[in-house]
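cron nightly-structures :: item 1 of 1
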Amino acid sequence: MAQPCSFRITFDRPDRRYAGGDTVRGSIQILVNSPINSKGIWFTHCWRAHGIGNQHEHTLKTTQLAEPELLQPGQELNFDFSVTAPLQPLTQRGSLFTVDHYVQVHIAVAWATDPSGEEDYLLEAGGVPDNLPVSRQKITLGPSWQSPSQTSSTVAGFIGCLILSLFLFVFGVFFVSEPMIPVGLLILGLAVAAWFGVRSLLLKRQLGTVDLSIPHLVTAPGEPWLAELKFCPPRVLRLNAITLTLQADEATVSGSGSDRKTHRRTVFEQIIPLREAEQLPAGELVHERLLITFPEATSLSFEAGDNTVRWAALLRIDIPGSPDWTRTIPLQILPAAFASQIPPAAELIPHWHLAGNADASSRNRPASGTPRVSTAASDDSTFTTGTTIASIVAEINSHSPHSSARASVIRRSVGQRMTVSVTINRSATTIGNAEEDPLYSGGLTVDGTIDGTRQAIRIIALTSAAAEIESLPPGASWQAEVELIDWDTLYHRINTRQLP
């Protein structure tokens, strides 16, 4: 069925890239194909978090472009628009949802779906918003955190379990007819409380007081980042390992009520070893000081509606034959341009020009009580890449997920032409430098996995392939001749472009 009208929205910048605070200009062309009893033509500027979950949209500006009138076939309407790009949220392409900025136009009609058109643009960091965290220790997205003492957390957990057990007992007495069920509920609650208390006291006896300090709970990719751990075991202690994991999780909710479902995916994970298996003498101070450049990441902290990206640092002391000591510390990751407006902690100022990460081979065991500075290691292995996509995927998988060797495999294969079959996950309008090339202008970018593997791949498709791609549903297989571009470290993804 023919559409009653067609829309064409163009921007004054071919790459559609704007910084926060920039003026976004462009034009709108509407070509009427059949009679429309218009109740008015409206322009909307908005941003939207959308994906597999519930959509969240925030309208920035709505303007009426034309008064009600009867539009006739062949009639052409042209309008110019000019809006100010918001300071945030920045465009963010995630795994479960995407944050995009749009200009929209729609014709209001009675008792029917409004004909409409929209185009997105890319928002980058520009002007600094006024709702930034006031300090590096005060996060404004996600749960807040304060370093609790081991004693206070033990007492709080034990008291909480006691209160829960008493509540279950009272509930059972008044609402359950079987007399033994309230007793069973009380015993269960007391058992949980006892386990919690015993577990915490056991860790206290093994580790003593554990002091964890992270000066920058608010940080940005590329900034120096410090974590400091201290404890003094009162008795001989065997360790399996001490690790710190930097992790970003996307979460989105679909549906509502009984159909409500939460989807979660880890989009970034870097495990940093602080100590390997060893036996610690009684009374020896363990002082680990991790100083790194915070890793590059395209998923920044985000929270809107049912869509979130949350970062955390997870510290784990792995003790054989005993419960592990763990602590999860929420972080807030900002664009570097925003974070630079928040004064750094005093202990990090001397390292503010930290250039990169030292190699792990330079680490030495310090004298007792001397802090050991750890940094993330790099992998500079040499290798030969294959000439088929299957051999390249096999070589990628032979290296650690966070090894730089994976990126090197792709770098050494850039420009190779090969055939690839992919299972389509999603497709979206191509944005960026590729749009300036007439072969790709107005085309689609396909995200999916290489058939027969779990390897993620992105293909910038030719404009001529758009109709074919649009006809394929998610989950369908599509084959193309491609050229390798680069490796996406964050998403462990091969980036390619389709060749004619």
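cron nightly-structures :: done
The helical segments are 150-175, 180-207, 336-339, 389-397, 404-411, 466-470.
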